[in-house]
Amino acid sequence: DVGAEHIVKAAHDMGITPPLDAVPAITLGSEEATPLDMATAYATLANDGVRCEPFAVQRIEVRRETLFKHRAKPSCEQVVSPEIAHLVTAMLERATCCGTGYRALLGTGHPQAGKTGTASDNTNAWYVGYIRQVSTAVWVGHVRGQIPMDDDYYGGPVYGGTFPADIWHDYMVNVVQRFPYQDFPVPPPPEYGTVPGVVGMMEGEAQ
Length: 207
Hints:
Layout: H1 4-14, H2 35-46, E1 50-52, E2 59-62, E3 65-69, E4 76-78, H3 82-97, E5 113-118, E6 124-130, E7 135-141, H4 163-175, H5 203-206
Antiparallel strand pairs: 1-4, 2-3, 5-6, 6-7
């Protein structure tokens, strides 16, 4: 119903940089992206739908002397409405607390959101998640190509909810100590409607 072309545009708007083929399987993750792209896209959700261009180094200091400082104002653009960003974040909070991403739960009290991802034949596994101030992406796979990780890896195959979620947790549980508790914005209330009663009607009348 949405159309693959619109999904490609939304992905590019949010920070996915490679060219993407507008095929139906794009909804299942058929196209490739880098961990940096994924962290940028999820940061867009954490940032009220505002995408900021990533950069590698913010500042270099030696003995209180600043040798390098990234430009003060990052390049940012509103690419998703805040309401949609807040709604998706609320959905991804549930995916972490009550879904396949439970192993990424920090236990620090910081609200967090995220999503697991596992490719066919377990060739790639992801966990991408964020708190209000930080977005982090973890990818587990083989640099040599699409090699299945469906053998016995420490007790079973690799899924997004196993090693990637564990790695994300072990990294972020230290990172969040630098940031104060900050809740996600409240998502818009759900829309309600009336479902007409069609029991006992003929098909044409019911339609």
